[in-house]
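hiii so um. not sure if this is the right channel but i have a protein structure encoded as tokens and i wanna go backwards to a sequence. like what aa goes where. can anyone help
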């Protein structure tokens, strides 16, 4: 396993395509949207720092995978969608859900397994869904979200409702058969879907440079007659611009695209991962690209925020997170007699035309 190669593969700053540079210049992002990007990324980071704490206290059970370091991908991508568009997430899905508009109270309650959770506590960290927000589900089985997303996109095409689906998945998932089948179907059927691969360099302990046959996962797209785009997953604006352009094109009848966001998870694969498969230098390198710190500096330089207004924003978010934790802690577990509810749909629903 060659960690240097892994890092080199994801160093996108020096390899920006002229196309990416042109796209970044042509899209003017309004100041209020930039502020929202920063607030959302900060919310995800703080939410997950709290998740780590609650997990260590034994208040969150099962396995939990945090997204710290990757926030710019979820926020950039989901900000390019309308509120009734769909996303399908992964086992590392808290960031996607918050970015798509999930509320913090039911999110946190879900993680603590409480009846006030968005899935009544039955989904937990890896199976959060909130259909009202277009969140069709986080999925614990690697690569299993792609067919769900393709199904949602097929329904949108069939119903002609204009809704777009984003399918999020990791570098590891791109080696699953589902990835290849889904890109093929989405291409031949010209489905309104965008594939967003979060290449965070690893699938548990295995570097993408070892497990993946090509340097960039985006290089696989032309095999399905679709475009593969590489973007810097540490830069929220670049992700937003890439996804927004893809959404506009797909809405206008173009084929789907595969967007590969080069990113990195700062934390272990799971909470408690000893991380013997990567070096401190590699982690430190990626922390210099921190999506939140660097974006804060950018917005200060652009005079969109001040240190003072940033502190006001972070104080507000910190309080909302504390409120969500208190709400979750004070909620009840679902009573045992309701455990089997919502598992099977009724005949009534199944046979509705
Ligand atoms: C089908 C399947 N195989 C194996 C696993 C165990 N597993 C959980 S996460 C993971 C790695 C996934 O890597 P990637 O797709 O890159 O996502 P990341 O964890 O890096 O976000 C694996 C192998 C699983 N959940 N499902
Ligand atoms: Mg990965």
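sure thing!! here u go:
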């Amino acid at each position: 396993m060659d960690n240097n190669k892994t890092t080199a593969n994801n160093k996108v700053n020096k390899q920006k395509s002229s196309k990416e540079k042109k796209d970044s210049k042509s899209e003017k992002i309004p100041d209020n949207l930039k502020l929202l990007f920063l607030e959302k990324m900060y919310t995800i980071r703080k939410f997950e720092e709290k998740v780590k704490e609650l997990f260590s206290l034994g208040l969150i059970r099962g396995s939990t995978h945090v997204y710290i370091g990757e926030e710019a991908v979820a926020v950039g991508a989901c900000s390019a969608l309308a509120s009734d568009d769909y996303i399908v997430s992964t086992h590392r899905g808290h960031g996607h859900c918050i970015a798509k508009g999930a509320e913090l109270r039911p999110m946190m309650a879900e993680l603590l397994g409480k009846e006030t959770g968005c899935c009544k506590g039955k989904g937990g960290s890896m199976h959060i869904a909130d259909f009202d927000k277009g969140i069709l589900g986080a999925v614990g089985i690697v690569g299993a979200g792609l067919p769900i997303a393709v199904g949602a996109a097929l329904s949108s095409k069939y119903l002609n409702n204009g809704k777009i689906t984003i399918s999020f998945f990791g570098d590891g998932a791109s080696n699953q058969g589902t990835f290849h089948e889904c890109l093929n179907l989405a291409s031949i059927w010209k489905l309104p879907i965008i594939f967003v691969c979060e290449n965070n360099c690893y699938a548990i302990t295995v570097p993408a440079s070892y497990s993946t046959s090509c340097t960039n996962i985006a290089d696989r797209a032309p095999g399905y007659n679709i475009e593969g785009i590489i973007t810097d997953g540490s830069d929220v604006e670049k992700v937003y611009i890439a996804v927004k352009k893809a959404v506009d094109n797909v809405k206008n009848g173009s084929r789907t695209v595969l967007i590969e966001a080069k990113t990195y998870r700062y934390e272990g694969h799971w909470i408690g991962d000893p991380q013997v498969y990567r070096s401190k230098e590699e982690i430190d390198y990626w922390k210099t690209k921190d999506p939140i710190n660097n974006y804060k500096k950018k917005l200060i330089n652009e005079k969109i925020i001040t240190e003072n207004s940033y502190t006001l924003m972070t104080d507000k978010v910190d309080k909302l997170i504390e409120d969500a934790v208190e709400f979750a802690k004070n909620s009840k577990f679902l009573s045992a007699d309701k455990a089997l509810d919502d598992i099977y749909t009724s005949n009534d629903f199944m046979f509705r035309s």
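oh and The radius of gyration is 20 Å.
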